[in-house]
Structure formats: structure tokens, C-alpha cells
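Training component of the fellowship. As part of building independent skills, the fellow (R.M.) carried out the full modelling exercise for a liganded target. The chosen ligand was nicotinamide-adenine-dinucleotide. The inputs are recorded below so that the supervisory panel can assess the work.
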Amino acid sequence: MSALPRTPQPVSTTVPKPQLYIDGKWVEGESTIEIAIVDPATGATLAKGRGASDAQVDAAAAAAARAFAAWAAMPAYDRGQILRSAAAKLRANADELARVMTLEQGKPFAEAKAEILGSCEIIEWNADEGRRLYGRLVPSRQSNVQVQVVHEPVGPVAAFTPWNFPMTTPVRKITGSLAAGCTCVIKPAEETPLTCLAIVRALEESGLPAGVLNVVYGDAAAISTRLIDNPAIRKISFTGSTRVGRMLAEHAGRMLKKATLELGGHAPVVVFEDADLERAVPQIMALKYKNAGQICISPTRFIVHEKIFAPFVERFANTATSLKVGPGLDEKTTMGPLANGRRATAITSLIDDAVKAGATIAAQGSAPEGGHFRGPTVLTKIPLTARVMTEEPFGPLALVNSFKTFDEAMAEANRLPYGLASYVFTRDLANAQRSAAAIESGMVAFNSARVAWPEAPFGGVKDSGSGSEGGSEGLEGYTVTKTVSLSW
Ligand code: NAD
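Fellow's submitted model of the complex:
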């Protein structure tokens, strides 16, 4: 029997209503701020809700404070079981959650699903790592004294997450803090709260006690100010722009609260003369245009040896223009729209400015009309005076310049105040080791585009932030140390 021709199924654009979650209850926001979930591929409003009032923000912090003692006292094994169960629920529902993520954020369905499955691995790793928050015994000076160093949960945490990874970033902060025994109030980005709420639902269905996790959003500045001021909150964790991170860190510093900051980047990619271009280009190109370039570790400044500059640019430009830009729910799409109008406007302005400064457009892929689409673009020979050589583009824009000597390449790699991720392609071990030592960044990948692993710290230096998420370092960031001297 011959297979019937496949009839295209209509794409459902139904999404859940955005609500708040406070003290174990789903509630409507009570502020006058309206939250609209907008599909970046069409500009259509998919759902509306209201932001949190001051009283609701206070209630969320109070709930996290009340729930803290019992949650901190729960054995790490039992906390981990709740987290593991939530991961299983998210994994089982990955297709539906990916559809909602694509609608609220724009990324292609396959990327959204990969983000959900990758986030489940982070949850499971945090669940287990919570059981390994070991302290230590310090050799004592006296035979009747034992000196212990123990890690204790820091207390209720306020977490602030952006719109580019609506699941991974909230998962890192929620499950890192909960696994360490902290409670949490999270403010997801106003553009993409639905995916964060799905994490909460999975945890609630897995038996998370009321108050351990609370979700508020609305007026980002007012909410963050209120939470940082609240004496119950003992730590903040922020992912987003350097501009906002600096403001929140200053405030947290005045209040003497711990802060983990994962901020902007402008990642250099150094391609030495001996690099294997066949291997390098597809990998780094895929990461460049993933999520339409809206990734803090996105490869941005390509610093390519002059002898391989022309073949590199040719290969890169060909692959960039072969991308199919379109709505994320269209199966053929390999790059979706920008997540919001701010990014789309910014990208056009950065390209125009670079061209005015003397840069060449080596490739510019086409993009559909309507929505916030921009074609993947490759600029070459960009003068340092162009704004994009210092501002994080956060969009589908690759900047390719050439270098002659090792020192020149390293000077360019370290020229900016950012220091999040960097990438180096070379077959020479000595080159690799010299670069690893010279590059100022929190993460560096050689002959690969992967720097993020659940088991390893993820974070930056200089203006890219401080502290880590992921790895044992990530969990330690949610703890304080206590020295216990036992005498007999
Ligand atoms: P923005 O600086 O206005 O906001 C960045 C993020 O911080 C958003 O999620 C926003 O909701 C949140 N935010 C803003 N003000 C806040 C406040 N006072 N308190 C708490 N949270 C607050 O910029 P944007 O237009 O949303 O994004 C543009 C720039 O942000 C990008 O160019 C990029 O540099 C940076 N960004 C970085 C990341 C990252 O993963 N590090 C993610 C998203 C955006």
C-alpha cells in the first residue's frame, strides 16, 4: 500500500496564560503593568497577563524566607529526587514545551527541543551534585579540637534571567539554588515567562513544598530593586547585559549580598594558519547563527591568519547564506527571527554603522518580511572605529579580520573589557597552550565550538561578570562556609 501524501498540519499558536507563582499558588498579577507574549516571527500577541505588584513581590520573598529552614534541612538526596522527577516530566513533555518556547522566543523548534533536553541534564547534574557539597576537616593544632569547614545554603536567592535561553538559564539558577538547599524567587524575562513557568509546574507536580520557588515579573527594575532591598534575600544571581548587571551588583554590594553575574561577551575566534578549516567552519558557523546569534558566548570577532583569510571567508560566507531564515515552527527553518524589535533595530544600525566606517559585507542572507527577521551577515575588514567592534552585537552578525603574528592575534582577542568565551583553531599544541595562557576569558575551546557542560563552571571574567554557574563551583556559589571548632 502506498503511503498517503503528508498533509501539512496547522500550527497551533495557543499558549498558556502567563501567571505568577507565589507560596505554592498560581495567581494573577496585580500591578497595572501588562505582560504580552508576542510571537517574534509574526508580531502577533499570543497571550496577556499582569505583572506583580509590590505586595506580591514582598509576598514571594516572605514565602521563600518561611520555606527556607525546612528545605535547607531536607536531606540533599530527597531534594535531588524532586529535581530528578521534574526533569523526567520536562523531558516527557519536550515537544509541547519546545512549541511554546519557539512561539514566545522565536528559535527554531529543533533548537528549542535541544535546549529542553540539555536543561534536563543540568537539572539531573545539580540534583546529584547537591549530595556532594562536602566540607573538610582541617588538621587541628590541638589534640582535643577538631576543626570542620561546612558549606551551608546561603538563604533565599533572587534570580533574574533573560529571554535568549528561556529554559537553560532559569534551570541553572533554580535547580542550582534548590539543590544547594536555598529557596528562590525568580524573575524571568518579561518576554519569555512561559517556559520558566513550565519548570515550576514540573517541580510542583514533583512535590516541591510551597514557598521554595516563587515566580514574579512585571516592572524589571522595580522588582529587582525591591528584592535586593528585602532583608530576607541573601544572594542574587543575574544573567543579562553588563549595563544591568553592573547596576544590580552595585545595589547588592551596598546591601552586602553575594552576587553571581553572567553578563555580556564579544567572543574572539582565533583561526591559525594551520587550522583544519573543514572541521572548524561548520562548527563555529553553527554556533554563530544558533539562536540568531543571541547568545552570550556567540563567536563574534573572527581573527583569521592572513594566509587563510580568503578561503575562510569564502567557506563561512557560503555556509551562512545557505541558512534558511523563517518562523521557528516551520520545519525547514534553520535560523529564526530575533527575539524582539530592540535586537532587530540594533543589528541594522550596527551593520549600517560598520559599512559607513569602511567594512565590507561579504555575505548577507535573505530574510522574510514581517516579524523581527534579519539575514545572517558576514562583515570583513572592519575598522576598530566601527561600533560593532566594541558593542556586543547579540545577533546574526560575524566580524572577520586578519592577523599576521601570534601577539597581534592575542592583543585583538584581549582588546575588549569582555572575557566570557573564546575559541581557538590550530593543530599546533604549542600554539594552543600559549593561547590558553594568554587569552583573558572564563572559558576557551580549542578546535571546537563547545564551552558549556553541566559538569563544568560556566562564567566570565572582567566585564563579563563574576562567579560561575554549572560545575561544583556553581553550587558552591549558593553556599556560605562555616568553620566549626569542636573541643572536648
Ligand atoms: P537589557 O539590558 O534591557 O536587559 C537585559 C536583561 O535584563 C533582560 O532580560 C531584562 O529583562 C533584564 N533587566 C533589565 N533591567 C533589569 C533590572 N533593572 N533588573 C533586573 N533585570 C533587568 O537589554 P535587552 O534589550 O533585553 O538585551 C540586550 C542586551 O542584553 C544584549 O545586547 C546583550 O548584551 C545582553 N543580554 C545578555 C544575555 C546573556 O546571556 N548574558 C542575555 C540577554 C541579553
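The panel noted the following from the submitted structure. The first helix runs from residue 54 to 73. The chain has two domains: 20-263+465-487, 267-453.
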